[in-house]
Every structure is written in structure tokens, then in C-alpha cells.
Design a protein that fits this description.
This protein is mainly α. The protein has 18 helices and no strands. Helix 3 (about 30-40) packs parallel to helix 6, helix 15 runs antiparallel to helix 16 (about 200-210) and helix 17 packs antiparallel against helix 18 (about 230-245). It starts with 6 loop residues before the first helix and ends in an 8-residue tail after the last helix.
């Protein structure tokens, strides 16, 4: 079958016609035609493999990217091609559920090896939309701007923040940012973890006390590691609790 004049014609070829077209022309098609072949809903694993084996076609970045993301591309080819993609495209592929899981795992591994070498601006942009694998690393990034960006990531889970807020690795600035966050600071488990962490600035910890349950306040007050300042703050809550008909935190 000769080359077609319009890429839209290639995209609409039937399964058999597409297979024949590729068999006849794969050695001579160029970038646009290769992309049109891959965009055809009848594109098969065998066709993707033919294109992936062509060094001439995979020299085009757009073809490499399309093959890496294509569900029909054999995994051996897709995993190899992701090593030749830019950071922004790797990041997009890592969270694209249409990309096969083994390919996404390969992408995550590449991102994890490169994340320490990217700029602060790239880290901030990455934190807003990265996958779960990268979230675990960026949670411990020392720059507070990265942490602020991470709090807007839809894939971030509450239990990950609770673990961080309960950890000695959490910095005072991270705990303050978390305490001020409009989405996360209202979660009870996070409030409690922030109060309990000795790295939390004392004014920040004190601001959450009035939202904690009596049994938790009682336990915090009795804990030998609780600062005198927080104990006094808990004790000052007693008159308020009594006015509301609530049992004293020290009863």
C-alpha cells in the first residue's frame, strides 16, 4: 500500500489495512505518519514493536513519548524508551492511569534517581502533581516551599502527614505550615500529632489544644515529656470546660 497523503487517513484505516500499510511503508514513513499510526485505534502490539525497533523513527522525541505511553507497546520497548524522556513527561506518565503499571514503576524509579538533581522550581512543580512514590521522598525535603506545594497534591494521604507530624524528622517550619493549612489542619489525627510533636512551636501546639478530646488532653498533661507551657495551657482550659458542663481534664 503506498503512502497516504493525509495523516487523518492513516488514523482511520481498518485493522487489516493498517497492518498492511505499516508492513509496506514502515521503512519510509516520517514523524507525522508514525504518530498517526500510533493514534489509530487499531494499532496493535506488533505494529508498536515495528515502530519501536526503527532507530530512525525513535530518533523523534514525539514518537518515543507516544510509544512509551501506548498500552500496546511491548513492555520491553516501553521501559527502555522512558529512559530517553524529559522530566515533565516522565512526571505526567507516572500518574497517568492509562499507562501500564510496569511502565509507571519504571518511570518512578527514574524520577527517584533524578529528584535530588533538579532545581527548586522543578521540585515545587513536581510536588504539586507527583506520584505516591515521589511524595514519600519530597515529604522530607528541607525546603518549606516544597512541603507547601506537596500539601496541594491530590495523591497525598492523611496517614502520610500523620506519620510525618509524629516523626522527629518533621521540622518546626513544616509543623507550622501543616498547622496553618486550610485543608489538613482540621483533621483530628493531624491536630493531635502536631500537639504531641516536641518540634512543634509551642504557640502552634497550644492553638490546637481546645479542639482535642478530654482523654487526649488528660494524657498529654500527664506525659512527662509535655512542656510546662502546654501543661499550663491545658489547665487554663479547665474553666472553659466547666462552663460547658464538661469534666475537668485533670479529674
Amino acid at each position: 500500500m503506498p503512502l497516504l497523503g493525509n495523516v487523518n487517513d492513516i488514523k482511520s484505516l481498518s485493522r487489516d489495512a493498517l497492518a498492511q500499510f505499516v508492513a509496506d511503508n514502515v521503512a519510509s514513513v516520517f514523524e507525522d505518519e508514525a504518530l498517526a499510526i500510533l493514534d489509530n485505534r487499531n494499532c496493535t502490539s506488533a505494529i508498536c514493536s515495528q515502530i519501536a525497533r526503527s532507530q530512525r523513527l525513535t530518533a523523534f522525541y514525539s514518537v518515543r513519548l507516544k510509544l512509551a505511553a501506548h498500552r500496546q507497546t511491548p513492555l520491553a520497548h516501553a521501559v527502555k524508551l522512558v529512559h530517553y524522556l524529559y522530566w515533565a513527561d516522565l512526571l505526567r506518565l507516572s500518574v497517568d492511569v492509562k499507562v501500564p503499571p510496569p511502565v509507571r514503576r519504571a518511570v518512578d524509579n527514574i524520577l527517584l534517581t533524578k529528584v535530588t538533581r533538579i532545581t527548586l522550581g522543578e521540585k515545587i512543580a513536581t510536588a504539586r502533581r507527583c506520584s505516591a512514590a515521589l511524595i514519600k521522598v519530597l515529604l522530607h525535603d528541607p525546603d518549606p516551599k516544597v512541603f507547601e506545594a506537596l500539601l496541594t497534591n491530590a495523591r497525598l494521604r492523611e496517614d502520610e502527614l500523620v506519620d510525618l507530624a509524629s516523626s522527629s524528622r518533621a521540622t518546626p517550619e513544616q509543623l507550622r505550615i501543616l498547622s496553618d493549612d486550610r485543608k489538613w489542619s482540621y483533621r483530628y489525627a493531624i491536630r493531635k500529632a502536631v500537639v504531641l510533636n516536641p518540634n512543634t512551636p509551642r504557640s502552634v501546639a497550644a492553638s490546637h489544644l481546645r479542639f482535642l478530646r478530654r482523654d487526649d488532653l488528660r494524657a498529654i498533661h500527664a506525659n512527662p515529656s509535655t512542656s510546662t507551657y502546654l501543661r499550663r495551657c491545658i489547665e487554663r482550659l479547665r474553666p472553659v470546660a466547666e462552663r460547658r458542663g464538661v469534666t475537668s481534664t485533670q479529674d
